Write a sequence for this structure.
């Protein structure tokens, strides 16, 4: 899914997330992501924000980088007015098909998160499963936070779910191999202070191997809370997993930040 500009001598490639998330093999590699996990995550979000106490039909939700729609669909099933946004037409088509099959109503938009068009519209914005920090420039991440702030109504909630970098460093598996159907999937991970990079090599039973890369910025608790505050958010709390356990910087696998627009 790349092309070469032979006249200039440069190899022009799509960003890793535009290529990989739009490839049909993506959902096969991550087929272990289950609905039960999404249900627990959404329940934690609604409980911690106290939105569970308000009629769902009166609330609007934006799911940024919604992918195939696990979380957006669960919110819509509960009665919320949901918009799922993603850059991948393939993943959005999958989410639409799931919604149609389950007779679930929600809207979908296809847009780069750095260019979200919404203004003062949503009661809740969620950005889940490490869907923040894709970009090489930190200014782009700050632009995303500014867009979220702009999209929320006054008093609206933003839930940002990140990897806990300390837990990751203590538990990093540098290489793993697994079989999914007729595919052999090798995942090789490398870690710096700033990023986690994973190279995924997929070999079918017949045919040549395909290789994809994921590279996501890592944020310490101090750094991401400062970024949120600088974007105008008030930090409410941090959860350490999808069950809502208290965040422990040395042991929690996740860092789910709950913040509000004043």
């Amino acid at each position: 899914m790349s092309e070469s500009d032979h006249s200039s001598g440069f190899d022009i490639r799509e960003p890793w997330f535009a290529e990989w998330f739009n490839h049909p093999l993506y959902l096969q590699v991550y087929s272990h992501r289950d609905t039960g996990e999404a249900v627990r995550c959404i329940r934690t979000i609604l409980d911690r924000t106290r939105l569970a106490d308000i009629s769902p039909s009166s609330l609007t939700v934006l799911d940024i980088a919604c992918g195939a729609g696990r979380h957006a669909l669960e919110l819509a099933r509960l009665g919320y007015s949901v918009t799922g946004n993603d850059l991948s037409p393939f993943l959005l088509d999958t989410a639409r098909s799931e919604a149609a099959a389950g007779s679930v109503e929600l809207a979908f938009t296809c847009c780069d998160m750095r260019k979200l068009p919404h203004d003062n519209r949503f009661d809740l914005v969620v950005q889940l499963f490490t869907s923040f920090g894709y970009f090489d420039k930190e200014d782009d991440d700050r632009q995303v936070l500014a867009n979220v702030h702009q999209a929320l109504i006054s008093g609206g909630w933003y839930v940002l779910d990140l990897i806990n970098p300390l837990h990751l460093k203590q538990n990093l598996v540098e290489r793993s191999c697994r079989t999914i159907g007729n595919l052999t999937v090798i995942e090789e991970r490398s870690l710096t202070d700033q990023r986690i990079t994973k190279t995924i090599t997929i070999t079918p039973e017949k045919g040549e191997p395909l290789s994809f890369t994921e590279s996501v910025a890592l944020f310490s608790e101090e750094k991401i809370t400062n970024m949120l505050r600088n974007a105008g958010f008030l930090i409410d709390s941090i959860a350490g997993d999808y069950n809502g356990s208290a965040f422990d910087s040395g042991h929690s696998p996740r860092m789910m930040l709950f913040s509000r627009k004043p």
About this structure: Confidence is low (pLDDT under 50) at residues 1-11.
